[in-house]
Structure formats: C-alpha cells, structure tokens
Amino acid sequence: MATAARALGGYGYVSPATREQVLAAAVRLGYQPNDVARSMRAKTTRTIGFVGADIVNPFFANAMRGVSDVARQHGFDVFLTNSDERLDLEQQAVRALLVKQVDGIILAPTGVGDAPHLRSVVESGTPLVFIDRALADVPADSICIDNVAAAETAVGHLLALGHRRIALVAESPVTGDDARCPVTDDDEWAARSVPDGVSERPDDRVIVPSAARAHGYLRAHRAAGVPVDSRLARRVPRYSQEAARDEVRRMLALPDPPTALFASDNIMGLGTVVALREAGLTMPDDISLVTFDDLDWTAITTPPITVIRQPVYDMGAEAARRLLARVNGDTSPPARVELPVRLLVRGSTARPGPRSS
Amino acid sequence: MATAARALGGYGYVSPATREQVLAAAVRLGYQPNDVARSMRAKTTRTIGFVGADIVNPFFANAMRGVSDVARQHGFDVFLTNSDERLDLEQQAVRALLVKQVDGIILAPTGVGDAPHLRSVVESGTPLVFIDRALADVPADSICIDNVAAAETAVGHLLALGHRRIALVAESPVTGDDARCPVTDDDEWAARSVPDGVSERPDDRVIVPSAARAHGYLRAHRAAGVPVDSRLARRVPRYSQEAARDEVRRMLALPDPPTALFASDNIMGLGTVVALREAGLTMPDDISLVTFDDLDWTAITTPPITVIRQPVYDMGAEAARRLLARVNGDTSPPARVELPVRLLVRGSTARPGPRSS
C-alpha cells in the first residue's frame, strides 16, 4: 500500500517495474494515470472545495452549480461541504479540505469578526474566495451583491406604490462586530430612530446580508421621509420559516397592521407567505409582499410574488473563475466583485387596497 | 514539502525532531494532529463522499443534510459532488473521491446497466451505498422507497375520488436495461396496452424511480379496471420543468382533457402547476393534482397540493449509517432498505367537479 501511494503520489523511491504495475492496477480500477501525472507536474490536485453555509437553502445549491460548471471546464473537481451556519463546523470543513490538499476554497463565511482559521488559509498560500458574504479582516476576493441597495430598491418600490406601513421580516443580528459583507455607505445609520431590533449602526465595511438588507429597508424609508414604526421592524429571533411566520402573525394582529411586507430572503419569504395564507389575506388586495431570491415557487403562488433576483448561478461561476485565476498564479490585490440584481415586479405588489388603507 | 507530507501522512522516514516541527506548524495552521494520528491508527481518513445526481433538486440537498448529520455524530466529514445525471461526470466524481481516499461513497447512480466503475469500487474494498436508486449488478446496500407502491397509492387516491381520465406527467425512459431501482413485483407490466410512451416492461429488479412510478400509475388503473388512454401517459421528452409544462399543456388541449394529473416528482410537479395556472384552471374544481415530494412550495400554492412524502432526510441518514457500519467492518450481505412513504391529502384533490366531469 505504501509502495502504491509512492508510485501514484510521485514521492520516495519506486522501481520503474513496480511503478508500471501500480499504474496498470490504477487503470484497471478506473484511475486515470494521466490525471495523476498532470497533477504531479503542476503541483496541484485539480480539486477545489466549496463550503456552503446551508445546503438546504437553494442559494447554495444554485451557486454550487455555477462553481461546478466553471471548474469542470477547467478540469477541476469540486467538493462541497456544509457548515450549517456554525463556526465550529466551518473550521472542521476547512481543515478537512486542506487535509485533502484542495487547490483552493470558495466559502460563505458563517463566522464573524476574528477568523484565524481563514487567515491561516490565506497565509498558507491556498487561494480563498468568499461568496455571498465576506470578512473584511481576511484578504481574499469576494463575490457579493450590494445588499443595501437591493433592499432599498425593494422597499422603495413599496413606498412608491403608496405604502406607509411596511413590515421588515429579517433575522438580522445587527451589532458592531456581527457583520460580514462589505457595505460602502456614508449615510447615517437610519435605524437610530428604531428603539427595538435593528437599532445599532453596523460597521460600514462588514455586515451580514440580512443586516445589510435591514439597513436598506431603513435607508429607503429615510429617503422617502417616512418614519419607521419599530413594531414593524423587530428582529425575527431565529433563522427559520416558522419563526418568520410567527413574527408576521404578531404584526398582523397589531391594531394598525402593515399594508406591505419586505422579506429579507427566501426562508423569511416562505414563512411570510404561510402567515398570510393562515390569516386569509389576499395579495395584493389586502397586503403587498416583496421577497428576496427568484426561486421557482415565487412564480407559482397566487399571485406570483415580486422578488429581488440575485444572479446566484453567476455568483458561483464568478467565484470559481476568480479562484482558478488565483490557483494559476494571479497575485493581484484581492477584489470585491458585486454582481447586479433585478427587481421583478409581479402580482403580489400594488397600491394599498381599500381593505388595507 | 515532501518531509511534511511524510510526517503528517505517517509513511517513510522523518526524524522525531522534524516530525515535532511539522506537527507544531500543522497546529498553528489549524490542523489537528490528533485527527491525523487517529486516522493513521485506524487506517481511515474519516471522510466519506456523496455523489448526488442533481444538486439543484431539493431531494439531494435534503438527503445530504441527513448524511452529514449522521456522519458528524461519528466524526466523519462529508464531501458532496454532483453528477448532473451524466455518467461521465459520475465516473469522474467517483475517481476524484477515490484519489482523495474517502472511506466510503454514497451514490445515486445516474448510469444504468453496466457500471464497471462502481463494481471496481466494491471490488477494491471501498464501501458503497446506493441512495434513491440502485444497480442490481453491483453488490451494494441501497436505501430507496417502494416507488411502484407509492405511485399506486397516489393514483389510487385519484381513482377512488372518481377520476377516470388521469394524466401521467413523468420522464420515464422505460426500457429493458435503462432501469435502476429494484422492484419486486410479479404483476404483468400493465403498460402493454399503452402503445406510445411507457410501453415496455422493465426488468423487475432494476428500474429508475420515474419508470417505477409510471408502472405504479398503470398498476393502479389495472387494479381499478380503468383503461389508460395512451394520450394521457406519454413520456415527457426531457427532464425539465418546461418540458413538463409543455406536455401538460398538450394534454389540456385534447378534446377530452384529463380531470386529474399525477406528477412523478417535484420538477414535473412544478411544470404541471405552471401549465394549470397558464390555462386558468383552478384546483380542485377544474382539475385535481397529486405530485411527489413534500417540498415547502407544495404547501403554499392555492390550494396546497396533495403529495407523496418521501422521508428524504431519513434516507440520507440511513445511507450514512449503513456506510459507516461497512467502514467499521460489517460484512453482512448487501441489503435493500425501503423506507415508508405517506400520502398527504391536501386541497388539490377532490371528486371530479361539474366543470371537469
């Protein structure tokens, strides 16, 4: 076994005859000696790792498709692992990928603030590219969207329709160091006026997407001169469809309920739709809704739902292209790439109806 | 680099002082020498591979969650790769996982018939467990459901409600050797009476899920003494939501359209719902629908959709348990495990309405 490992791995002494035997056996078992030989020459394994935060979220499945397609075009295999939004599992996943000697890693950081395990990756020379979120303290490329602007567009659409009581459905742990995706925005943090929930000003440069989207919600209100009722912008306490449903249910029971809602991602959006159904409310007559992510289900509800479309596949593909450029020796300074989003206006948004105004 | 590899990998000569230095550096970089040492002792890498057929299909994402949870409980990392339902990519994924020396592989076979690359895996001593589908010629455990019985239950529900014109929406390439998941069923292949589409009798023991579900559709009709109109049971020519939509659209345009539909999985189901919406049909007044897979979206359509619920998470968890038992030396004969499904009756199914009868 040690001999076969030396022959296939290309280290230590193996007699030419033995090496021939091992390679023949490898062929019989389906290995391709050319792959092995090429990766020896190039000092790469022609494999990359992708650490997604939650594989059940379609965002990561669609991004993985983009990563895989580009990687394959360049002869690389991709291994996906899953951090379940837990820092310890992210550390373990990164360690496991390094042990497997992948040539680079694409990662949606679940941790915030200090990330020595990710700085180590960069310092060890293994290329690292962030997707969806980034960590300002780790010098690596990142592929994101402008979450603040995207949310501002979504909420601005509702404000322009005439809505003045717009609920935010977001799990946005906005604190100074609990923040990830760079935002360049010099505005005052509009949330100062919100006493409960999304109340702290985040670090301008690093912020989780949900917090950035909450920021955009507040900025849109500020730009329109519309005050935010703090009872409509409380944090959803857990990241789950059920918690979103409960929060929407609470807001619908207010004496002056919202006439529109903005859900910060597809999980929050699903919970919101369930709450509206249970309350017997009809979109857009009774209430309007905008959510994030153009998933299949948003087009088959009654009515179809107005969404912010992220170019998820393209984000994965671009992350793979950046990573492979680094693997091939690109040493330019780390760049932040922001891909454009689109507001798709469908049937779930309209002027406040007679029943809601 | 070669020295570090020897020290961490545990082969060849490394002086004790050098080995100490390498391990110290590994700790600094976030490696855990205990993991390395343990895997050396146990001759395992404490990693397993999962080859899913299509990562964008929520089936595989949910199964991956089950696989990961069980693997983690036992200290194993999981690497997911994706075959995109292509045999060449499956072969490549398996090869890449073997090069990475995973301790075992869970795989949803996309190829059919002869699978020398998978027989090689088994012969080389690397444990292999099939999920969702199996190959009769490869002696490995498989975790499936009884697809024939599940479809028979779904279609039986529609027949019991009084429907006599039930459409099948399935991409079911039913041919003698184009078949995967074992079915133990001694019935005659009811499709003999169907001239176009699902017309051939599959091998009793190996069959793709969609073909098995088409079989169940036909068996339910046979059991009820209801003839099948071949125009309602043609094969959807491509595996895509759009192709399913087009096929349903064609059937709705018939002089005697169906009063109910059975969609063989969640992709076919999505396309079916889109076609019904576009035709302006209301469920269940105009038409009834049963589909496969209890995905979130099936509960938020208007009305919610009657589905066959597969225990997808449990299938992944059970696959991981079987695989780890094999890794730990279980040499009992390969077993086929069939997990139970449930029919969840929701608002999309009812007696044929006045507008459809």
UniProtKB/TrEMBL annotation, chains A, B:
Keywords: DNA-binding, Repressor, Transcription, Transcription regulation. PROSITE patterns: HTH_LACI_2 (PS50932). Residues 1-42 form the HTH lacI-type domain. The keyword Aminoacyl-tRNA synthetase does not apply. InterPro entries: HTH_LacI (IPR000843), LacI/GalR-like_sensor (IPR046335), Lambda_DNA-bd_dom_sf (IPR010982), Peripla_BP_I (IPR028082). One of its GO terms (molecular function) is DNA binding. Pfam families: Peripla_BP_3. This is LacI family DNA-binding transcriptional regulator. It comes from Streptosporangium fragile.
